Task: inverse folding
């Protein structure tokens, strides 16, 4: 995994961990969508790595609860969407049931008016299933609002750049001088100039303004 991907995953995991603590559920998933509502990146915490792989490879495409969220843009859960049919669903048989996931909620994440992702909150026990009722979804929805807000404040990162290059491109785009960037990052101006030169080459830019604009287009 590239360095920027590792850092991005750590950023998403930190946000997901915050949601897990505040919701007091057993597991959490956080996935971001592109304009076609396809998941482009995400993390799952509180479940084995084998579950994450199984859900991403098999489960996501047969997940009726996720499909309902994509269709309606509203919170849903295994209780409200499937009820007693949940344990007979292909998702339960092929993925969730194998790992003891007794149910989960899907909460929409919005970027302005665009459905930009999904927050999953799951349980491995029967007792918390009350959280997956309509009333429970209403209670948990503020977690999704907080997560949406938190995602907007994550550092932007462009693919194939190091964390330091992303930081310098971001600060240059904010109008900071080389001296101010160096002071902010606690490095030398020579190092900043070296990185800016590399960033210009990377984006095919001839000045920092054009480079910063190209970085903003590439960053996510």
Result:
């Amino acid at each position: 995994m590239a360095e920027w991907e590792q850092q991005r995953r750590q950023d998403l995991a930190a946000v997901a961990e915050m949601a897990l603590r505040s919701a007091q559920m057993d597991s959490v998933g956080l996935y971001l969508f592109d304009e076609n509502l396809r998941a482009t990146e995400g993390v799952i915490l509180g479940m084995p790595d084998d579950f994450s792989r199984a859900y991403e490879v098999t489960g996501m495409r047969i997940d009726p609860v996720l499909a309902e969220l994509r269709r309606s843009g509203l919170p849903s859960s295994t209780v409200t969407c499937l009820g007693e049919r949940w344990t007979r669903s292909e998702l339960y048989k092929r993925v969730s049931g194998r790992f003891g996931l007794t149910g989960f909620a899907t909460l929409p994440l919005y970027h302005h008016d665009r459905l930009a992702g999904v927050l999953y909150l799951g349980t491995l026990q029967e007792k918390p299933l009350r959280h997956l009722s309509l009333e429970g979804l209403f209670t948990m929805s503020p977690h999704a609002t907080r997560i949406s807000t938190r995602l907007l404040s994550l550092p932007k990162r462009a693919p194939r750049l190091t964390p330091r290059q992303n930081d310098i491109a971001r600060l240059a785009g904010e109008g900071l001088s080389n001296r101010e960037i160096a002071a902010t990052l606690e490095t030398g101006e020579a190092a900043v100039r070296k990185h800016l030169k590399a960033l210009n080459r990377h984006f095919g830019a001839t000045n920092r303004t054009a480079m910063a604009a190209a970085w903003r287009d590439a960053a996510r």
Notes: The CA atoms of residues 126 and 177 lie 57 Å apart. The chain has a mean pLDDT of 89.
